[in-house]
């Protein structure tokens, strides 16, 4: 099959063919429809690539121009590397593992910041038959979509969604021999922190690059979430204990005020997406257990069975301290150590956690509330009622402190111990 004199796929003089049998033919037909006929090539290429072409078409009129691949200024590079020091540190182990695994291939590992500036590349230099990769695989080069057009890392930096871009799916002609797969890395704020990319030139991957890059990006993201959680209780949980410590584990960060601050993707799949409003993220409402009971889990190294509010049984490990040593047990009274929970390692279904009977409260509940209130009142008194200074000493936000005070006033006016919000607001600073 060849291009006829009108530029369409098919043999000369034959009717136009609407379908293509190979990936290369589909991309060629898609480019013809989009760039020459102004037709949206839906079904021929991925929607992410089409959207990228549309953005690039508005910004770059000439698809055949030479892309410079110039590095950013030294001052910007210095600032970029300094700003992404934590990302580079937590990604170091996985980057070394990837480079070792790919040492026998021509693939290059590229890590960019959230704006598309390269902050790490494979140590091994690109081969002579990869002239474009020699220029792009350099620290400081900006490979964002607005600079180099459609690429996998450029799309991820723009949309935050993993994707692959193959051959002529790249916007500029100079990149038509490239193949790349990229995945996002997010931080505790939920915003993009970086992009992990695999790129090869003049040949195909020969393996599932999208799955590989997604696996390593997830591992790096999990490390970054924990590193950035300097004042959170970290929960690691999954339906099977064998998945803990793997890229498939679910993670949750519990703030000192008893709310869930963040979830990784696996955690969101088990618990659902976090509500936008902070006052709807109460840990007892979403997990079915209060902060004190979760803190007790941090005293045990082995995974413990837990029944979530949804009824799902999971295995949980809790970490009381963040990497910098912060510990917020100062904000709660730790109840006496409970009897260890016997775990049948051969069983895959966690035993249900005993729930308190209707109308009864656990012995530690009032102790936790009383300690929390006493701690806040004493801290406020020490600072002559200055909420900002008291919140700073307690290592919580002013909003959290105001919610505690308002909750106590409302509880004294209209006692209502059954409200989930009241329980959450009284059980941790």
TrEMBL record:
GO MF assignments: sequence-specific DNA binding
Name of protein: Acetoin catabolism regulatory protein
UniProt region (Disordered), positions on chain: 343-366
Pfam families named among the record's database cross-references: GAF, HTH_8
Domain DNA binding HTH: 367-406
Domain GAF: 87-223
SUPFAM superfamilies reported for this sequence: GAF domain-like (SSF55781), Homeodomain-like (SSF46689)
Composition bias type Basic and acidic residues, residue spans: 355-366
């Amino acid at each position: 099959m060849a291009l006829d004199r009108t530029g369409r796929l098919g043999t000369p003089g034959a009717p136009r063919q609407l379908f293509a049998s190979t990936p290369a033919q589909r991309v060629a037909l898609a480019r013809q429809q989009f760039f020459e006929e102004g037709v949206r090539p839906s079904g021929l290429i991925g929607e992410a690539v089409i959207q990228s072409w549309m953005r690039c078409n508005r910004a770059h009129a000439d698809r055949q121009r030479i892309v410079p691949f110039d590095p950013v200024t030294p001052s910007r590079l210095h600032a970029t590397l300094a700003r992404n020091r934590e990302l580079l540190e937590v990604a170091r182990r996985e980057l070394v593992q990837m480079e070792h695994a790919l040492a026998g291939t021509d693939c290059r590992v590229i890590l960019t910041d959230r704006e598309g500036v390269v902050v790490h590349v494979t140590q091994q230099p690109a081969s002579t038959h990869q002239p474009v990769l020699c220029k792009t695989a350099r620290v400081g080069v900006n490979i964002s979509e607005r600079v180099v057009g459609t690429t996998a890392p450029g799309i991820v930096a723009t949309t935050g969604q993993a994707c692959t871009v193959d051959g002529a799916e790249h916007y500029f002609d100079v990149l038509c021999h490239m193949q790349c797969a990229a995945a996002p890395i997010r931080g505790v704020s939920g915003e993009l922190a970086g992009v992990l990319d695999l790129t090869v030139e003049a040949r195909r991957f020969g393996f599932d690059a999208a799955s590989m890059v997604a696996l390593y990006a997830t591992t790096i993201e999990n490390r970054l979430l924990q590193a950035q959680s300097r004042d959170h209780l970290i929960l690691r949980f999954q339906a099977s204990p064998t998945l803990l410590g793997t890229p498939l584990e679910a993670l949750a960060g519990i703030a000192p005020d008893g709310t869930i601050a963040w979830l990784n993707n696996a955690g969101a799949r088990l618990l659902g997406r976090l509500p936008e409003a902070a006052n709807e993220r109460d840990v007892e409402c979403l997990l079915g257990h209060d902060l004190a009971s979760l803190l007790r889990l941090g005293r045990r190294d082995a995974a413990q069975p837990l029944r979530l509010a949804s009824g799902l049984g999971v295995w949980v490990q809790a970490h009381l301290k963040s990497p910098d040593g912060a510990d917020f047990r100062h904000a709660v009274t730790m109840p006496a150590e409970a009897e260890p929970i016997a775990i049948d390692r051969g069983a895959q279904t966690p035993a249900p956690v005993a729930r308190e009977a209707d109308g009864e409260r656990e012995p530690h509940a009032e102790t936790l509330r009383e300690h929390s209130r006493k701690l806040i009142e004493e801290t406020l008194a020490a600072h002559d009622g200055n909420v900002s200074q008291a919140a700073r000493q307690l290592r919580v936000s002013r909003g959290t402190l105001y919610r505690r005070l308002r909750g106590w006033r409302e509880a004294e006016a209209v006692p209502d111990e059954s409200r989930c919000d009241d329980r959450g607001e009284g059980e941790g600073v």
